[in-house]
Amino acid sequence: MWTASARHQYRRTGGRYATDVTDAEFALIEPLLPPAKRGGRRRTILLREVLNALLYLLRTGCPWRMLPREFPPRSTVYGYFRRFWQDGIWSTIQATLLMAAREQVGREASPTAGIIDSQSVRTTEAGGPRGFDAGKKVSGRKRHLLTDTLGLPLRLVVHPANLQDRDGLGLVCARIRRRFPWLQHLFADAGYQGEIALCAAARERLRLEIVRRPRDAAGFHLLPRRWVIERTFAWLGRNRRLAKDFERLIDTTTAMAVLAIIQMFIRRLANP
């Protein structure tokens, strides 16, 4: 809930745009960005400006060709965006900032419990892989998210919406213990019940617990654990680029969502 003190703490003034990173935020991410390549032409673009352009596009949802002239050329911004995703830079930054965010609030760097859920979003005429989620009547893709019990994202996987939740669990949890060795417990809704999900969790030595809605509940009912990941989806949904899936490639839409997670982390860490 926004309070007067919280609004003052997170108020962003002094930059060209509200999405521009502050000095404190960029100081968190700068050591994790790759240096310029040795040899060849000298780098003339500031990576901070590339990051500002990406965060502007993410928050406003504008097309690439409509980036303001104050930013580097769109081809340059997109080139860095794609290269950093293909080289694993964005994923590494997300994992590093996640550990810092957990330690900031007194938790161990690696969680022991997580919450899994999915969100179906519509795609556009851009094309690319898609499917139909019959349960939610959505033609598009699913964002499958795993968070810790604080709601901090651990892993995100995007796939066509026709893949059911119990089948998607295996994609999200594949080799998850290599990155989070102490993860032992997963909370999920009834969409993950059944042998397929149980076997996928067991392969990763995870215990799957289904958080069920009370039978006598009528209307809206706040469910323990599950509300945490719904709040995380709402946090990510503040970015208009994620209101729909505007991307043709699944890699691109995944990278955009990971960038939104990185933005969430640096703002949290810079404003404790």
Describe this protein with a few key phrases:
single chain, alpha/beta, six-stranded mixed sheet, 10 helices, 41% helix, globular
Main sheet: strands, sense, barrel = 6 strands, mixed
| CATH classification class | Alpha Beta
Strand content: 5-15%
For the record, the CATH architecture stands as: 2-Layer Sandwich
- Low-confidence stretches at least 5 residues in length (pLDDT < 50)? none
Helix % is: 40-55%
Provide the succession of SSEs: HHHHHEEEEHHEHEHH
Q: Could you please say which CATH topology applies here?
A: Nucleotidyltransferase, domain 5
Count of alpha and pi helical runs? 10
From the helix content, strand content and strand pairing, which structural class follows?
alpha/beta
Number of strands: 6
Could you say how many structural domains there are in total? 1
**How far do the termini sit from each other?**
16 Å
The CATH superfamily bears the name: Ribonuclease H-like superfamily/Ribonuclease H
Averaged pLDDT: 90
Gyration radius, rounded: 19 Å
From the spread of the alpha carbons, the general shape counts as globular
Task: Describe this structure as you would to a colleague.
With 272 residues, the protein is an alpha/beta fold. It has a single domain (18-32, 43-213, 223-270), classed as Ribonuclease H-like superfamily/Ribonuclease H (Nucleotidyltransferase, domain 5, 2-Layer Sandwich). It is 41% helix and 15% strand. It contains ten helices and six strands. The chain has helices spanning 4-10, 23-29, 47-60, 74-86, 89-104, 165-173, 176-179, 195-203, 226-236, 250-270, and strands at residues 113-122, 131-133, 138-148, 153-160, 185-188, 207-210. Strands 1, 2, 3, 4, 5 and 6 form a six-stranded mixed beta sheet that branches.
